Amino acid sequence: MRTFPTLLSAAVLLVSALLTGVSAVSTKTAQAADLPEDPMGEVVSFSRQDHDRLVWVTDMNMPYQAHGRAYLIDPDTGRFLSMLDLGYWTTGIELPSDGKRIISAETHFSRTTRGERSDVLVTYDATTFQVRSEVTIPPKRASVVKMQGTSSLSDDQSLFAQMNFTPAVSLTLVNLERDGFIAEIDTPGCPNIYGGGERSFHLLCGDGSFLTYTFDENGAVTGKSRSAALFDPFEDPISISGVRRGDHWYFVSLAGDVYDFEMDADGVRLAATWPLITEDEREDEWSISGFQHLALHATSGQLYLLTHQGPPETFEDPGTHVWVFDLKTREKIEAYELQELTISIAVSQDDAPLLYGIGAHIPMPFFAQVWVYLTEGEAPLIDTVQFGLDIYDAGDGSYQRSVPKLGNLPSMIQPW
Amino acid sequence: MRTFPTLLSAAVLLVSALLTGVSAVSTKTAQAADLPEDPMGEVVSFSRQDHDRLVWVTDMNMPYQAHGRAYLIDPDTGRFLSMLDLGYWTTGIELPSDGKRIISAETHFSRTTRGERSDVLVTYDATTFQVRSEVTIPPKRASVVKMQGTSSLSDDQSLFAQMNFTPAVSLTLVNLERDGFIAEIDTPGCPNIYGGGERSFHLLCGDGSFLTYTFDENGAVTGKSRSAALFDPFEDPISISGVRRGDHWYFVSLAGDVYDFEMDADGVRLAATWPLITEDEREDEWSISGFQHLALHATSGQLYLLTHQGPPETFEDPGTHVWVFDLKTREKIEAYELQELTISIAVSQDDAPLLYGIGAHIPMPFFAQVWVYLTEGEAPLIDTVQFGLDIYDAGDGSYQRSVPKLGNLPSMIQPW
Amino acid sequence: MTWFDTFIEKTARTTARLSSRRSVVAGIGTLLAGAAAFPLLPVSRVRGEEVANDPGDPESCDYWRYCAIDGYLCSCCGGTHTACPPGTIMSPITWVGTCLNPGDNKHYIISYNDCCGKSGCGRCGCVRNEGDKPMYLPQAANNINWCAGGSADIIYNCSTAIIIGVDDDA
Amino acid sequence: MTWFDTFIEKTARTTARLSSRRSVVAGIGTLLAGAAAFPLLPVSRVRGEEVANDPGDPESCDYWRYCAIDGYLCSCCGGTHTACPPGTIMSPITWVGTCLNPGDNKHYIISYNDCCGKSGCGRCGCVRNEGDKPMYLPQAANNINWCAGGSADIIYNCSTAIIIGVDDDA
Which of B61, B64, B65 to mutate to test the interface with D (most CBs of D within 10 A)? Predict the structure, then answer.
């Protein structure tokens, strides 16, 4: 903890000087047996190094989108540590590998929800959670419900790329080392952005191909290539929720096939594709679920899929189960039933990993839910949903704890 | 309804021109038996004259205070008609008697919840609900939980007065006819503002007195007087929630005495005081309730008090009953039990008036509430509270209808 | 069948430790069947229009036109299912869905134009994803804030469901 | 006794048409008495400090120091009951209350300094109004945004409860 030297314990008494016509508060020095006076003005200090693992949850906070926020959680204690205010309709944060900064592309209006629009790339200090710098970018940042694939850091951590949608599609490029906007590139038909390669980005296109750009530090294009169509976007499109391990990105299609893409400065190639949901399971209407369907533990090569049973149009509904696959054998090695209905998952990257889920908690006993459902339908129940972060043991799926009340629509989980 | 001429029915097809790589949607002209195509770009038009009576509900929306809002409701149909966005931590709107404007003192920040602060007095058009003008005022507007007494129009409708708290207390004055900030007056110890007299305002002071200012159209002080202490602010302070009938303002003390103050350009005089809650009732712990405890129907002279049973420190808790008094006889003439726990009340001013209440709705059957209460305590129940506007017949207290889901903390009701 | 049905079933499983799973789920099924026997009360159409071959309540998420919607229903927010609330502006372009009208058994192409310029209405939230596609296929993507295409910038208030034609291919 | 107890009782009355009012209320009384017989599980003190004569859980609205609070508990928001969360700033002046400490049966003067500069935490909302006064008596008024007195302007995040002395007069 640190104490603001300008704040004295007696500062509260200033009130009587500022406000006339009120009686002053009488205080006395604490006696031996009394509880001591507390120091005034203290702020809890934070150090990334004090925690083995942490996790960020980002919340677009619909319908109060001007309060886009990110919450920092210690998953081992369940404690809420801090938060960031991210402006109107946030699509998430980026976490540079140095652990010293948090990067956020934000939209603000001069009159909160009207007036002049300003888009800025903000760098927060990861110790004080205060703004360290702010770069003005074109006021074109995309506001979309699913946060993944809306921005990316380059692998060398020097460039930040942001997806724009006005509804014309383009990419904004910022050089983080010199805190400057350096380029806007039109990328028609190819909105979502994924990293891979020193200063390369890969854009997912509506025809099933990827468009790869490589930039120099000034934003000049030093390489550009477009892959063939690597999947069928009309028959079975892939979700934008991908996970990465080295040069490989894994995506899942709406029907449940995994696509292993190799992405580097040379472009994007399909390394393999196979079903995570078998034909039999599809007949039983097992489906992908939620917003962030996949998680990947890099060292073990285990891939986690959020699933539930429901017809194809429910691919965005909350999941009830997580299935665990071995990337090498392609076998399903575990199937966990989750404690709560879950809209996003992630895993920590340590050796005894935790599985994170954003759960839709209904603060009502089951029999009451049935009663309400039968008498009034599902709407009043959905209205009571409160989202929180649920923490499970990734090794056996056992439920550990929850961090309740994380805003109105948290959807992205990022281990830190 | 009116149609934007620039929007054509086929405008949706623009999408294919803007976004490459996507297939165009095939449409065809509707045949006789088909449902017709709908016109595109329509906006429902609004006219104050189409409604016998309307009501505004203002919401500070805690903890999402940047989304301060006001909701416009038709109480006879229960329809939600429109809304205004009022910036950070709103303390309400003013409704000029011409019915053509809505006035709102607002605070905005350049970065939504950080950065440079701008306080502005905004005039909205009461037909289009768009900003008509905006006046910059000192960035000192008070942000407080109870909205009454934080601003006032002068009786001639030419001046707007705003309570400031930095925590130094002052008053901001705007001339509405020429849309200009004209004065800031220091009013130490006297924050809350009430109208009464052509261009006079009465400030409620911490010593139990009122400070009266009369201004000219340029904001120059043409009269100033201070009353004696008219109540005992330490023994039994009055709530800031007053109601007005002509030159008389009625306030209720925390213990339940009504104070009838006469307020005009000459100052403030105590016309009468008598108990609304009798000694016997006080022994049974009947107490005033909520935020807006009083309502007054001007032509009938009926005063409505929101009450409940609870110890003195519960004076801000929701009310369960409304008691109706005749101002002439000072008799309690009705006692209504409310359908919902209620934090604010108001009445319409027509001949068959409606009683409005902001109710704390818990979307759960009673037995479930008891179950949750016993197993988990009250916190999870309070977390599920959803506020709405409840509409009763003011003549017999009968419940008519509710308008659910009006934000996170609506507290002020204004008949229009 | 929406995700809430799934949820009830799932919670039934979790609660199975209190009674046997099979009996709880069976019980729900019975109760649901019983509930279905009571017809819903008729809800009068917005502005009093009863349209014979356009059945349903535009203030309910179940209304057939909302089959691909994701947002707040303008009909609960001061607008109607085809018009924006006072004070907002309709975004000219948006995503489209194809919905089956049970009144005439035809498929219609529905344009879900967003109303923009006031903040999220927050009433009658409705998420149905028939035919919803990822955002790189934007013409069918309901996860995009389509206010981006309008003159009120990206401040989203609510969504409409406008018939723009009959789909002969469906 | 908070407003929710009142609410349960009130709703019991409303529900009395389903059974007799007297039996419902009596039943609740019995159930409450039964519930009270189970002591609350011990909750470890923030940062592990167990203070013998300062009993209670600073993350619970019931904690004795919160007798006059109205806000979100900083102890649930990244701070403690006496310190602000990382990234916020404590407002130097505020309202005070006088609370009875059941650990030593003394009254303490508590300063409820707000933490400012990030938006409303929204966790552990707690409203208790012992001695709360209207805002024209600001030194005892919990309805004021005291962030107004600090360098982070009026952006309110959460509230602390800081002992500034013993009240000999109480």
Answer: B65
CB contact under 8 A, A43 and D84: yes
The pLDDT score that the predictor gives to residue C50 is: 55
Give the relative orientation of helices C3-14 and A366-376 as an angle to the nearest 10 degrees: 150
B contact test, residue of D7, D19, D119 with most B CBs within 10 A: D7
DSSP bridge partners of A243: A250
Give per-residue pLDDT as tens, A129-187. 999 999 999 999 999 999 999 999 999 999 999 999 999 999 999 999 999 999 999 99
Q: How far apart are CA C126 and CA C158, in angstroms?
A: 10
Whether B25 shows a pLDDT value over 70: the answer reads no
pLDDT tier at D149, thresholds 50, 70, 90: confident
Q: Is C95 in the active site?
A: yes
- Picking from D15, D53, D157, A112, the residue whose alpha carbon sits closest to that of residue B368 is D15
Q: Which helix (H) or strand (E) holds C11?
A: helix C3-14
Which chain B residues contact residue A386 at CB under 8 A?
A: 383
- The answer to whether D104 is a known catalytic residue is no
Residue C43: predicted pLDDT: 32
Q: Is residue C65 a contact partner of residue C116, using CB atoms and an 8 Å limit?
A: no
Assess whether pLDDT exceeds 50 at residue B9.
no
State the average pLDDT over residues C123-142: 93
Mean pLDDT across chain D, nearest whole number? 77
Q: Which residue of D31, D138, D149 is in closest CB contact with B374?
A: D31
Q: Which of A19, A118, A131 faces B167 most closely, judged by CB atoms?
A: A19
A150 token code pair: 């809306």
Nearest to B175 by CA among B98, B119, B103, B93: B103
Of D9, D35, D41, nearest in space to D24 by CA: D9
- Counting one residue from chain A and one from chain D, the pairs whose CB atoms sit within 8 A come to 144
Work out the pLDDT band at A371, boundaries 50, 70, 90: confident
Whether the predicted pLDDT of B296 surpasses 90 = yes
Q: In this complex, how many residue pairs, one in chain A and one in chain C, have their CB atoms less than 8 Å apart?
A: 147
In sequence order, the 6+-apart residues with CB closer than 8 A to the CB of B71 are B56, B57, B58, B59, B80, B82, B83, B389, B406, B407, B410
Worst-scoring range by mean pLDDT, A154-168, C100-114, D13-27? D13-27
DSSP one-letter string for B144-180:
BS--TTSEEE-TTS-EEEEEEESSSEEEEEEETTTTE
Q: What is the C-alpha to C-alpha distance for residues A306 and D107, in angstroms, rounded to an integer?
A: 54
Q: Residue B5: CB partners within 8 Å, gap ≥ 6?
A: none
> Is the sign of the CA dihedral B257, B263, B269, B271 positive or negative?
negative
Q: By CA distance, what is A168's nearest residue in B? A: B18
Q: How far is CA D49 from CA B292, D43, D80, D110, in A?
A: 42, 11, 11, 20
Which B residues 326-365 touch A at CB under 8 Å? 363-365
Enter the ipTM: 0.89
Candidates D95, D132, D153, D168; catalytic one: D95
Is the predicted pLDDT of residue A277 greater than 90, yes or no?
A: yes
Entry field: residues in chain C: 170
Angle in degrees, CA B91, B93, B94, rounded to 5: 130
Residue of C nearest to A188 (CA): C136
Under the banding of pLDDT at 50, 70 and 90, the label for residue D49 is low
Q: Which chain C residue's Cα is nearest to B28?
A: C165
Are B206 and A106 inside 8 Å of each other by CB?
A: no
Whole-number pLDDT of residue B88? 98
Name which of A331, A302, A330 is nearest A396 in CA terms: A302
Residue A348 has φ and ψ, to the nearest 5°, of -75, 160
The residue to which tokens 């596609």 are assigned: C133
Return phi, psi of residue D126, to 5°. -145, 120
